[in-house]
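Researcher: Good morning. I'm working through a list of sequences from a screen, and I'd like to move beyond sequence-only analysis. For each chain I'm collecting a predicted structure so we can compare shapes side by side. This is the next one on the list. No need for commentary yet; just the structure.
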Amino acid sequence: MRLLRSRWLRPHAGLLLRRSLWQATPRGVAIGLACGVFFGILIPFGQMFVAIFAAALLRGNLVVAALGTLVTNPLTVPFVYLGAHRLGRWMFEWSPHAEIEATVAAAARASESLWTQLTTLDFGTATLHLGTGLVACATAGGVLAYGIGFVAIRWRQRRRALNAASSTAPRA
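Model: Good morning. Structure tokens for this chain:
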């Protein structure tokens, strides 16, 4: 509760202190995980705060939203961003002819120096490809995380209920 003394969090205290946002319900966990994964992939900085805020607005679990952002961390970010860039490039330039030209151009650039490659890079196009790929990956990851989170918490609750029922049943 000490955190709610902050001038940034105090206006949102009513929203953040809702008991339902801290309990592990199937819907709440699924929404929290989906928000965490979505914003964890989409936003490079401050994703945890945005995911928690979005989960609070959508009535998802806040702890799971914060943990869901850890899908991207300093070890995985280069792979996620490289894959998103390639996906975005494929989404914009998909045709066999374009792939053949890109392969030939890449082979020609392989002999160039790193400085020459960096100075001839079209950052606008690269950013468009990266952004498109990140939106696609974040959307797919969020939907997948929602499904996995919902199924996992329902399975856990059912298993726990069966274990409780079997331990209280009279033995013959």
